[in-house]
């Protein structure tokens, strides 16, 4: 009798996962999410290492140049030969140009000393010192220059502008600003002008007038020197500087008040935070120069997150 062979059904069995292990994984995920949310929604302590620096108290603005200049016109038509270098100083009686006409040559002599320029733009009477006491917002609005630079051999018509003579001992800037800023300045206050294309340092000036309209406020400043690079310009973008403060510079927000006075939190090498009183010497609404801390100190710049000195009853 043949042998009978029996086959048993093979079943795959999955090992049941432990409920404890599932619970641990859930706890870990919750903790990670909680920590991530905490980092996103809570301020962290921010510190800076104290250094020497400077604070420039001022603003950037467009300024219109007001010169003491006089325009001279050609008495005849013809080809012009220029006798002076652009921007050079000339005295009364010096030869300025020769105009060749069909009937001969006409020599033009200078009648007043100053700097000579053969460039004109049609705004010589509008931007002139004789109007310095009558500054209006329209001075800044949509002025168009009809710029023309004469060169040797140009044909000039009778009555056409020939040259300018500029008094380089008298020059003004009219600086546009807002009402809040203009109230910080006093008549006769000394200020400084910085132009990023000038390599000879700051230009010293003096506020001679404050003009306030509903649609604009203007500071009129007399400069202590002439800027030759501005000889043929009508407006410039400048930094208008009230003061420059130098010393140990920190953010104003780093300072808070304790019973012993105003001060900052300094982080020690051991990681502790200690309060040090400081004296504000100068500064702006954002940064200040102080004494009471040393170069290299690590100062907390957002002390509100530490709640230093708070007591819970």
From TrEMBL:
Gene3D superfamilies registered for this protein in UniProt: 2.40.420.20, 2.40.50.100
TM region positions: 23-41
Keyword tags: Membrane, Transmembrane, Transmembrane helix
InterPro entries: Beta-barrel_RND-rel (IPR058729), BSH_RND-rel (IPR058709)
Domain RND related barrel-sandwich hybrid span(s) in chain numbering: 69-167
Chain ranges of the RND related beta-barrel domain: 172-243
Pfam families xrefs: Beta-barrel_RND_rel, BSH_RND_rel
Name by which UniProt lists this protein: Putative membrane fusion protein
Species whose genome carries this gene: Halothermothrix orenii (strain H 168 / OCM 544 / DSM 9562)
């Amino acid at each position: 009798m043949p042998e009978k062979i029996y086959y048993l059904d093979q079943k795959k069995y999955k090992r049941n996962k432990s409920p404890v292990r599932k619970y641990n994984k859930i706890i870990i995920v919750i903790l990670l999410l909680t920590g991530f949310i905490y980092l996103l929604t809570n301020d962290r302590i921010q510190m800076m290492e104290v250094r020497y620096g400077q604070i420039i108290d001022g603003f950037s603005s467009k300024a219109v140049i007001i010169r003491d200049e006089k325009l001279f016109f050609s008495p005849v038509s013809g080809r012009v030969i220029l006798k002076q270098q652009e921007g050079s100083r000339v005295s009364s009686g010096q030869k300025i140009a020769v105009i060749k006409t069909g009937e001969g040559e006409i020599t033009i002599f200078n009648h007043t000393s100053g700097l000579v320029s053969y460039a004109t733009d049609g705004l010589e009477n509008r931007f002139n010192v004789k109007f310095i006491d009558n500054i209006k917002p329209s001075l800044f609005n949509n002025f168009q220059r009809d710029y023309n630079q004469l060169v040797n051999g140009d044909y000039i018509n009778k009555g056409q502008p020939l040259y300018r003579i500029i008094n380089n001992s008298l020059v003004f800037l009219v600086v546009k600003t807002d009402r809040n800023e203009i109230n910080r300045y006093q008549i006769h206050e000394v200020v400084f002008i910085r132009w990023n294309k000038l390599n000879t340092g700051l230009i010293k000036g003096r506020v001679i007038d404050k003009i306030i309209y509903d649609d604009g406020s203007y500071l009129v400043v007399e400069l202590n020197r002439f800027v030759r690079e501005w000889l043929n310009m009508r407006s410039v973008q400048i930094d208008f500087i009230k003061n420059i403060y130098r010393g140990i510079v920190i953010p104003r927000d780093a300072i808070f008040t304790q019973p012993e006075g105003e001060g900052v939190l300094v982080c020690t090498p051991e990681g502790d935070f200690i309060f040090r009183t400081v004296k504000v010497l100068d500064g702006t609404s954002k940064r200040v120069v102080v004494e009471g801390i040393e170069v290299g100190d690590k100062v907390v710049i957002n002390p509100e997150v530490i709640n230093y000195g708070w007591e819970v009853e």
